[in-house]
């Protein structure tokens, strides 16, 4: 096998693996998708080939591994840009890790390390497609939200907070913090719960159960903070 054929195989494997990783991210509606990861994977592969070429060339002096070190630094900045803080939630950590993994796969293919790179690739693919379901099954409460209840203070029973907590627990909520605000002029009480919630919520059913606990419930909302 001549050198050109070897380089084509390395770039082709890098393209295929990057494409599959990009397809997985796009299927989850993330901004970083196929074009980004494919471009990154094949460019890192090319830079790795360049590093090896410079190392084997007698005309090149100095340390050619600096290219690889520079790539890793640059990918770190690119991955950091994929991480977003949305209120109390942080998104993009997995995408940032995949960006780093894609660059590593591209560089490893560029260096001709086929077997270990393919092993890592299949481990990553299996992790992405199976662990997400397992996490949702065993740790369904993943999103941080704020539940706000506004009630009219009356002479009716006031031991409704424990009932509210039981309803949220039944629907898979994990309550982290509780804050109350009394509005004397309006004779109203506003209770805010910082909670972890599952992805799927039947908000209509939850609202009905809250209203059954207290007829003085004026409003109910679940929102990101």
Comma- or semicolon-separated keywords:
7 helices; two-stranded antiparallel ribbon; 6 strands
The structure class reads: alpha+beta
- The number of strands is 6
On the 0 to 100 scale, the average pLDDT is 80
Low-confidence stretches: none
List the helices and strands and how they pair.
Blueprint lengths: L2 H25 L6 H23 L9 H16 L2 E3 L2 E3 L1 H18 L3 H25 L4 E10 L8 H10 L3 E10 L4 E10 L5 H11 L3 E7 L2
Antiparallel strand pairs: 1-2, 3-5, 3-6, 4-5
What would you say this structure looks like, in words?
- By secondary structure, the protein is an alpha+beta fold.
- It contains seven helices and six strands.
- The protein has helices at 3-27, 34-56, 66-81, 93-110, 114-138, 161-170, 203-213, and strands at 84-86, 89-91, 143-152, 174-183, 188-197, 217-223.
- The strands form two sheets. A four-stranded antiparallel β-sheet has the order 4-5-3-6, covered by helices on one side.
- The longest helix is centred in the first third of the chain and has 25 residues, at 3-27.
- The chain is elongated and about 90 Å long.
- The model has no long low-confidence stretch (mean pLDDT 80).
């Amino acid at each position: 096998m001549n050198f050109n054929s070897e380089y084509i195989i390395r770039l082709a494997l890098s393209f295929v693996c990057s494409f599959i990783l990009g397809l997985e991210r796009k299927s989850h509606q993330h901004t970083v998708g196929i074009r980004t990861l494919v471009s990154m994977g094949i460019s890192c592969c090319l830079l790795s080939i360049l590093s090896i070429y410079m190392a084997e060339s007698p005309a090149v002096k100095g340390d050619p591994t600096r290219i690889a070190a520079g790539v890793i630094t640059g990918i770190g900045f690119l991955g950091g840009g994929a991480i977003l803080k949305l209120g109390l939630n942080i998104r993009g950590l997995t995408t940032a890790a995949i960006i780093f993994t894609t660059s590593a796969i591209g560089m490893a293919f560029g260096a001709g390390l086929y077997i270990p790179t393919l092993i890592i690739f299949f481990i990553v693919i299996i992790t992405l497609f199976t662990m997400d379901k397992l996490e949702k099954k065993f740790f369904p409460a993943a999103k941080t939200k704020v539940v706000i209840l506004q009630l009219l203070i009356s002479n009716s029973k006031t031991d409704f907070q424990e009932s509210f907590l039981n309803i949220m627990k039944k629907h898979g909520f994990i309550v982290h913090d509780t804050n109350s605000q009394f509005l004397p002029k309006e004779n109203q009480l506003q209770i805010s719960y910082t909670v972890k919630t599952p992805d799927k919520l039947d908000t209509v059913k939850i609202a009905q159960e809250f209203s059954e606990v207290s007829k003085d419930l004026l409003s109910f909302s679940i929102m990101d903070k």
